């Protein structure tokens, strides 16, 4: 492919609003173009990368027994209303109407649609298990699109769905998909972690996330050097609380003017912050008709993990109470809230570390006052104890190793949905005994377009992109230093033909540009190997540069095919997992 015939609008400067390295370099290298906020065009080079990723995905999904299909992006709203996600998905859902005023959405995911198809198409367990998938654009009205294509309003996604007659069938499909995902990311050449994750709006209880460590990652991963890794929302640590043995002292109310935080209350009362009870009031929406106030108690400066609280309550939505809510239910404003004297209309949850404390201090539900020497059962009740806190670095994980934190980019997510959607939408089959049973479902997703950002974040440098050969738009970049030099051009074209005949994809820079411009663009574009045809062309010698390492070697022209083969093989990600 001649470079003069392909659209690669390289730039010297990154966009002013670009924060992420991947965003800066993919724009500068002429891979992507912003059409509007959160909406991107994938220019020829980026689209070639996407096609390479898609091919890897198809290969591994086929191995796992999944079959490709295509679902519409324009979906009737009725199915989503029936599942409850029309409301619970929130403002991220693109909603629209047709000319007859019928309601539709642009699909952010397709659980409802595929479940309805299977409901109407499969009636017997003998037709199961089935695993289907698609590669399709999804739409989410992100409030703050950022980091280029890492978080946009339109993006390509692999979404797959498994349907089984029983739990064993789901477990088998889930494990096959987990293996396929590992194979995909291994072949692409990503550094990633498989972590425990929360299912969120997807439904179901069990899920795993595949996350690439990166500074611009929007998720916090808690991991160890052992076997443990989890999203901060899901992470747990070993409970090390020791029961305090002091005798309960008399409950007293003390003025704490201006003390609105735990540290301020501790200073005002002359106590350690670990002896202060933080009281956070939430409103839990249980269903369309019932919303319950929930007071969550934490030790000192521990942070409430709202996902854990939401899961414990099994509520549809959890939100921090407003000042008006706090005054209505507890008679005070945030900063002075506490559990003493709270009525039964407020549900009280407490983290496990609260259980071991004696003579605690807490808000008195009166602005500017706190209680000291508050004790469980004598002065206040707790309806449910549990792990409701965020873990902290250095705590001991379930595998016995210290927890570390890193930022991560979500690459993929697999869920055991169970019968969440099939029960709601009536997707049943006759089992072996002739009885109707709900199909048992799993769903599996990979953010295809965001994989480009993840790879770029891990491999790019200050000069530009550096693609692994498995997904690079071309294998080799051939650059004649002087396009006006007939000898150099003939050698460059000859090398290009030789490599293409050997099955390699080659980009020939035939532009009449200065050598410095060509080299700078080559670094930006980031192909695995660069072959420079320069002053030694008359001697039959060219220079080969490895983009990833910067290493250069000089070789004879007749050695080019063998050398390129050896170097690309060395640069190919290990695929032991894929060969399992």
Written overview of the protein:
Strands 3, 7, 8, 9, 10, 11, 12, 21 and 24 form a 9-stranded mixed β-sheet that branches. A 5-stranded mixed β-sheet has the order 16-14-15-17-20. α1 packs across α11 (448-459) and α2 crosses α11 (448-459). It is built from 14 helices and 29 strands. The chain has 3 domains: 3-235 and 404-458, BirA Bifunctional Protein, domain 2; 252-386, YbaK protein (Alpha-Beta Complex); 476-571, 3-Layer(aba) Sandwich (Rossmann fold), CATH 3.40.50.800. The longest helix is centred in the N-terminal third of the chain and has 22 residues, at 167-188. Helix content is 26%, strand content 28%. With 580 residues, it is an alpha+beta fold.
CATH architecture tag of the largest domain = 2-Layer Sandwich
CATH topology of the largest domain: BirA Bifunctional Protein, domain 2
Query: What amount of the residues lies in strands?
Result: 25-35%
Give the class from helix and strand content and strand pairing.
Answer: alpha+beta
Radius of gyration, in Å, reads 29 Å
Q: Ends: how far apart?
A: 36 Å
Subcellular location: Cytoplasm
Main location: cytoplasm
Subunit structure: Homodimer.
Enzyme class: ligase
């Amino acid at each position: 492919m001649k470079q003069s015939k392909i659209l690669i609008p390289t730039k010297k400067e990154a966009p002013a609003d670009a924060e992420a390295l991947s965003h800066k370099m993919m724009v500068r290298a002429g891979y992507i173009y912003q059409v509007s906020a959160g909406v991107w065009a994938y220019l020829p080079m980026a689209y070639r990368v996407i096609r390479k990723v898609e091919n890897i995905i198809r290969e591994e999904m086929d191995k796992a027994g999944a079959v490709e299909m295509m679902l519409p992006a324009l979906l009737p709203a009725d199915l989503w209303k029936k599942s409850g996600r029309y409301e619970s998905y929130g403002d991220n859902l693109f909603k629209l109407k047709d000319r007859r005023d019928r309601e539709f959405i642009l699909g952010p995911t397709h659980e409802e649609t595929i479940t309805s198809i299977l409901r109407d198409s499969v009636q017997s367990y003998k037709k199961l298990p089935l695993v289907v998938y698609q590669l399709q654009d999804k739409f989410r009205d992100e409030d703050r699109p950022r980091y280029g294509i890492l978080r946009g309003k339109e993006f390509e996604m692999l979404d797959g769905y498994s349907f089984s007659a029983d739990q064993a069938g789901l477990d088998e499909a889930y494990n096959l998909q987990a293996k396929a995902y590992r194979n995909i990311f291994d072949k692409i050449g990503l550094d990633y972690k498989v972590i425990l994750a929360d299912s969120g709006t997807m439904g179901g209880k069990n899920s795993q996330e595949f996350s690439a460590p990166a500074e611009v990652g929007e998720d916090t991963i808690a991991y160890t050097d052992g076997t443990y890794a989890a999203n901060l929302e899901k992470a747990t640590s070993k409970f090390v609380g020791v029961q305090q043995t002091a005798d309960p002292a008399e409950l007293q109310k003390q003025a704490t003017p201006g003390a609105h935080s735990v540290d301020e209350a501790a200073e005002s009362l002359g106590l350690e912050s670990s002896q202060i009870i933080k009281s956070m009031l939430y409103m839990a929406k249980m269903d369309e008709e019932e919303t319950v106030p929930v007071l969550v108690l934490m030790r000192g400066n521990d942070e409430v993990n709202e996902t854990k609280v939401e899961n414990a309550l099994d509520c549809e939505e959890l939100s921090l109470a407003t000042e008006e809510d706090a005054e209505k239910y507890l008679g005070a404003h945030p900063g002075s809230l506490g559990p003493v004297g709270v009525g039964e209309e407020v549900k009280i949850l407490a983290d496990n570390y609260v259980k071991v404390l004696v003579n605690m201090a807490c808000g008195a539900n009166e602005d500017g006052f706190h209680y000291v020497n508050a004790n469980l059962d004598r002065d206040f009740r707790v309806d449910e104890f549990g792990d409701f806190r965020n873990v902290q670095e250095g705590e001991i994980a379930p595998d016995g190793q210290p927890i570390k934190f890193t930022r991560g980019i979500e690459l993929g997510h697999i869920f055991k949905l169970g019968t969440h959607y099939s029960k709601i939408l009536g997707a049943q089959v006759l089992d072996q005994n002739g009885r109707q049973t709900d199909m048992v479902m799993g769903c599996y997703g990979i953010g295809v377009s965001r994989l480009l950002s993840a790879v770029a974040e891990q491999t790019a440098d200050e000069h530009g992109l550096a693609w692994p050969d498995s997904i690079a738009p071309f294998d080799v970049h051939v650059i004649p230093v002087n396009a006006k030099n007939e000898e150099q051009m003939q050698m460059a074209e000859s090398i290009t033909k030789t490599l293409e005949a050997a099955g390699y994809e080659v980009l020939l820079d035939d532009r009449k540009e200065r050598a410095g411009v060509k080299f700078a663009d080559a670094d930006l574009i980031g192909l695995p190997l660069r072959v420079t045809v320069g002053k030694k062309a008359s001697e039959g010698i060219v220079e080969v540069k490895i983009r990833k390492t910067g290493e250069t070697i000089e070789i004879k022209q007749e050695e080019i095919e063998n050398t390129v083969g050896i170097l690309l093989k060395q640069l190919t990600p290990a695929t032991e997992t894929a060969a399992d």
